[in-house]
Amino acid sequence: MDRVRLATIWLGGCSGCHMSFLDLDEFLIDLADIVDVVYGPVVDPKEYPDNVDICLIEGAVCSDEHIHHVKNIRAKTKVVVAFGDCAVTGNVPAMRNPLGKIAPILQEIYCERPETHGQMPGEKGLMPVLLDTVVPVHQVIKVDAFLPGCPPPASRIKEFVQLALSGAELKLQGSGLKPG
Amino acid sequence: MAVKTLTIDGKAISAREEQTILQAARENGITIPTLCQLNGTSNIGACRLCLVEVAGVPKLLPACVTLVGEGMQVSTDSEKIHEYRKMIVELLFAERNHVCAACVENGHCELQDLAISVGMDHSRYDYMNPKCAVDITHKRYGIDHNRCVLCGRCVRVCDEIEGAHTWDFQGRGANTRTISDMFVPWGQAVSCTSCGKCVQACPTGAIFRRGSTVAEMQKDRTRLDFIVTAREKKQWIA
């Protein structure tokens, strides 16, 4: 059997979902026998490869760079998974949405607060441009499966990965769907 | 007392004529999900989660405010109903800012439990991200409108059980807000008896007891002094 090509990515999130993935403990050793991690913070290649079987996307879509990433992932990946509440709902990164457009928020934080240096960070084009509205991944690309939780507990990730490896329908049930 | 016979999900049951479909279903061990329904207060059919199909009726009916009828054939378990329930819960999540991970009610919330029970894994609807206030002017309690689902349980429990009618609604549709007295901060609502019934009635983290959120814990050392005084002076005084 061909080895499964697994990718992960960390967008607008706290990396807690990746930490929870590491909490799989000895199951990671079993996984290493059948899975190649071809992209993600753990292995850190610069380019997202072709022909990825499954990609776990952690984090909400917050910037133009994130949009580029998820579209690229969609084009090169068979099964795209919204991994954790930020990817599924927007969650904590989306808490800025009710405050309005991003420009006045940045202006206030970097220029108007007395404790700041009174200038926007970075030259134009250097930093990703933040979106006015943070959105969940499925609002930008088609998502094949959802793995909620903040973070998803390791037991839930294990159940999900086992479903994926067995080729079963990627749908969690019952308390496996609990957000938060 | 007249008795009506009907079927719910094919099960033949009898119910008193003044009973609702919801009451009859519950008496017979048939679960219909609810959110705005609260035992001891009137039913208003606000949340629509208890919608059921009745044979011969072209629209879905809320079980909490529909009386049983002779020969009624009620269905609570069809694919259509399951889909509608899921849509309703998704709409509730999309309408306000329900951030479970940062909510005082996380793990004990009726809305969260509903999401699990209807099998919601994401919301198909765009989030509305409304700007919502948090009112912590009351000395004991707070209300976070980000988490409010407009079920009206606080309004009814305050009016019908406590008899104060501090709570009511202002505005319409998604812009509706739960308000205290004539739209004054809760801490200034003179009709409020601070009984806390709304805190217990609220299904989500919208109305909460202060001191239960992050960094709000305040220790009361006088409790220890009370014991020390009792031991040393043999007096149970504060």
Summarize it:
Chain A has 180 residues and is α/β, with parallel strands linked by helices. Chain A contains 6 helices and 7 strands.
Care to describe what's here?
The complex is a heterodimer of chains A (180) and B (238). Chain A contains 6 helices and 7 strands. Chain A is of the alpha/beta class and 180 residues long. Chain A has one domain: NADH:ubiquinone oxidoreductase-like, 20kDa subunit (Rossmann fold, 3-Layer(aba) Sandwich). In chain A, the strands form 2 sheets. Chain A has a 5-stranded parallel beta sheet with strand order 2-1-3-5-7, sandwiched between helices. A two-stranded antiparallel ribbon of chain A has the order 4-6. Chain B has 238 residues and is an alpha+beta fold. Chain B folds into 2 domains: 3-77, Roll (Ubiquitin-like (UB roll)); 85-209, 2-Layer Sandwich (Alpha-Beta Plaits), CATH 3.30.70.20. Chain B has helices at residues 21-27, 79-95, 110-117, 153-162, 197-201, 222-233; strands spanning 3-8, 11-16, 51-54, 61-62, 73-75, 134-135, 141-144, 167-170, 177-180, 207-209. In chain B, the strands form 3 sheets. Chain B has a 5-stranded mixed beta sheet, sandwiched between helices. A 3-stranded antiparallel beta sheet of chain B has the order 6-7-10. The mean pLDDT of chain B is 95. The chains are: A alpha/beta (180), B alpha+beta (238). Chain A binds chain B through residues 82, 85, 88-92, 94-95, 97-100, 133, 135-136, 138-139, 143, 146, 148, 150, 171-175, 177-180, and chain B through 93, 97, 99-103, 106-107, 112, 115-116, 119-123, 126-127, 129-132, 146.
